[in-house]
DNA sequence: ATCACTCAGTTAATGGTCGTAACTATGCAC
DNA sequence: GTGCATAGTTACGACCATTAACTGAGTGAT
């Protein structure tokens, strides 16, 4: 699945010195890479620059990653995991109302994007050489989506269900999507709300990051709050 | 404003041979650049590769653009203009209902993004060295927004106005935005709908381009239609 | 018609990048 | 200790951006 990830060695196997050093170097590569990316963007992450910052010769990096693209791909999957983790932690153990927790999750998403804007751009923007989107984007983000879906189910339970979309075909596709998530139980209305929240928030955050709102006096958070309201209202009764 | 743009010479000034050749070469640079970008992405656009495809020496390009970044910046503004033009043309002279025309404009946006996906990524994704977002993104896209706003005003005129957002501060910011667009007449509800449509569609299209929906059985166009409905419904009565 | 100037284009060179090849030296298993 | 696997090295080739120095064609004034 992910050839380059650090495999958790829970077994108290006698971790050899070599393995330890290798893991340590790998960690340093990841840390330095993210430092460079956060400071100057992915395009500034070159094998040479990375090696230089580690006081290492450039070819040595190839012992860890077969190419610059492979390194970037690895960093992308790490970032996805990190983003998903940030969203999970935002509601972990929270006893607030489901609707509030939706806001927490979404805000965590935005905060992560703002805090690590270069990484967010790396995930959803650049994709220089069109990375293997397959494995990369699937699992970790699906996990975050599952989280959102659960919250929305809870929201719906606490309010009279309903809300027709008016597009039977779309509902069918949403059912398929639910099945592809191995959650055939979730209703189209919930799936619809989850997807709409994601696309809406991504749209706002993405434009916020490109600076579209900078010159305008719009606060993205207000737009997001409004959009969450809209999406959830969709879940409840039938309309407003 | 834009040092590199071709200035329309409507005056029947005796266009010198030199000027004609220069304009011609500039045109060829733009065309070849877009060809390379469309085929392999911006990251593959190198001065060297461009010059090679024109059977020209690389340093010669510097007679036209002081750096690779300047070239890319120029291509970005051209692309913005092209996108805005595509949106305008989609409804030019259309006698359909305003609501239908909104759909036409938005669909033109998506179609352009799908047809020139690399360029769209260049506009809203990559932005490698954080280009001068100031001049770049302002005028041409504002024009497209103005178009959308006009259509939404028409929509609102044909339906009972109203629709409170519940966020007075946001409404105030929207009023400021309207004034910054030099259109102080547009109501917050209209501005809100315009911005929401833009962010929503951008979010969907952007995720569609990164391939998030590929493995899922969702058609982006259906999501977009749904979102337009939602945004417009917002304009009308008060809720559903 | 020619002279001087401008400027599009050239070759040559610097210093950066990715990536490969060939080598050295260390850790580890026996 | 001997031998293998491997993390690291230096040396290299191919590409890139950009500058410097030069060539030659277009242009405008005499």
Automatic annotation (TrEMBL), chains A, B:
Keywords: DNA-binding, Transcription, Transcription regulation. It comes from Streptomyces pseudovenezuelae. SUPFAM superfamilies: Homeodomain-like, Tetracyclin repressor-like, C-terminal domain. Residues 23-83 form the HTH tetR-type domain. PANTHER family: HTH-TYPE TRANSCRIPTIONAL REGULATOR BETI, HTH-TYPE TRANSCRIPTIONAL REGULATOR RUTR. Coiled coil: none annotated. This is AcrR family transcriptional regulator. PROSITE patterns: HTH_TETR_2. InterPro entries: Homeodomain-like_sf, HTH-type_TetR-like_transc_reg, HTH_TetR, MT1864/Rv1816-like_C, Tet_transcr_reg_TetR-rel_C_sf. The keyword Membrane does not apply. Residues 46-65 bind DNA.
